[in-house]
Write a structure and sequence with these properties.
about 270 residues; alpha/beta; TIM Barrel; about 25% strand; globular
Length: about 270
């Protein structure tokens, strides 16, 4: 059964909601939907008080370590931390109180997935404490086929890794959770990538020990039911800019109620 999963996006030490496609190295190109007056810890405690499990804290760029640590203190040993995670600092974040670390660009040196790096970091923190971020962009092939390719470096660089069932099966040896931002629709609040959600559900069929979290475009409470139907209950959903706690119209309390009412959630 699909459930709602929380997020705390950090940019320059503040909680923000950003249009994913504008997240480049040039801040002048940045399109920001919301800048919160609340601290990261405020949101961590909000999620804690409402038992929104699996919440991820994403550091978008530099100057976010202190803010991420503040969030962790609001809900120790329950939050996931991503952004700039590598073999040198992964255990440090676990020691600071993160439940899991999210590995992204470090896993793709020269734009190609390094299985050696994945094995290494999985052995250090343990597969139960590792989330692999395979956020992606849609690529249309000349033959009309649609594929989704992993994007790194703030989702600006396409890697050589295409999402598919075999990839998910291979990754499941080293992690128990995958995070998938649909970068093309991230922050737009214009609807999820329905075709991608269908595929995510297909690709993780038979992989009972792995969890899939999708983010990007969620705009209404009905999207939870939509993702549940499209993925056959295999994919969880994150809301960002559309959520009222981030300046949007979707009520946080409604999402919490969904999780509570569907208590057979994984």
């Amino acid at each position: 059964m699909t459930k709602y999963v929380g997020c705390i996006d950090l940019h320059d030490g503040q909680v923000k909601q950003i249009v994913g496609s504008t997240l480049t190295t040039n801040d002048n190109e940045l399109s920001t939907n919301y800048v919160s007056t609340h601290s990261p810890r405020y949101y961590a405690e909000l999620y804690k008080n409402n038992n929104v499990l699996g919440t991820h804290v994403i550091k978008l760029g530099s100057n976010n370590d202190i803010a991420a640590e503040e969030a962790i203190k609001g809900w120790p040993n329950k939050l996931q931390v991503g952004g700039g995670i590598n073999i040198d600092n992964c255990q440090d974040w676990i020691n600071k109180g993160a439940d899991k670390v999210i590995i992204t660009s470090w896993l793709f040196p020269n734009g190609e997935l390094s299985w050696d790096r994945l094995k290494q970091i999985s052995s250090v923190v343990g597969k139960d404490h590792l989330v692999v971020d395979v956020s992606c962009k849609r690529v249309n092939k000349e033959n009309g086929e649609i594929t989704w390719v992993v994007a790194m470096n703030k989702w600006q660089t396409l890697t050589k890794t295409t999402l598919n069932k075999q990839l998910f099966k291979d990754l499941s040896e080293y992690t128990t959770e995958l995070l998938v931002h649909a970068a093309d629709v991230e922050g737009l609040c214009k609807g999820i990538d329905e075709e991608l959600v269908v595929k995510l559900g297909e690709w993780c069929q038979g992989l009972d020990d792995i969890k899939i979290v999708y983010a990007g475009g969620a705009k209404c409470i009905e999207d939870l039911d939509l993702v549940n139907k499209l993925s056959l209950g295999k994919v969880d959903l994150t809301y960002g800019s559309s959520l009222d706690i981030f300046g949007g119209n979707v009520k946080f309390t409604d999402l919490v109620a969904w999780n509570s009412n569907n208590n057979d959630n994984k």
